[in-house]
Design a protein that fits this description.
Layout: E1 9-16, H1 23-32, E2 45-54, E3 63-72, H2 79-84, E4 91-94, H3 101-105, H4 107-110
Parallel strand pairs: 1-3, 1-4
Antiparallel strand pairs: 2-3
């Protein structure tokens, strides 16, 4: 007898943006409550998930949601790989570095 998933709903979210803007740090902080001040560039794609409980508006029954976070490489050479991971995504977080105006100016290219 197979056991069903330990969650009610699955949501796939992609983190997009230039290299070095903090996508990996954001993902690690949210999923593992950790932070590293050392910068290691993501090669290709990284993936983590976290199961959270939410209570939809008008409902008194909590729903278990598995958030899949897909951390994409920000270097131009990986853009072709990144686009294949867009399929099936329910949301995209476009990230930029508030201390580097160029990363904000490139948000349009990620959109």
């Amino acid at each position: 007898m197979s056991k069903g998933p330990a969650f009610d709903q699955n949501i796939k979210l992609l983190l997009l943006g230039d290299s070095g803007v903090g996508k990996t740090s954001l993902m690690m902080r949210f999923t593992d409550q950790t932070f590293s001040s050392t910068f290691v560039s993501t090669v290709g794609i990284d993936f983590k998930y976290k199961v959270i409980s939410i209570e939809p508006a008008g409902s008194n029954k909590p729903v278990s949601v598995r958030l899949e976070l897909w951390d994409t490489a920000g270097q131009e050479r990986f853009k072709s790989i990144t686009t294949s991971y867009l399929r099936g995504a329910q949301g995209i977080l476009v990230c930029y570095d508030i201390t580097d105006r160029r990363t904000f100016q490139r948000v349009d290219s990620w959109m």
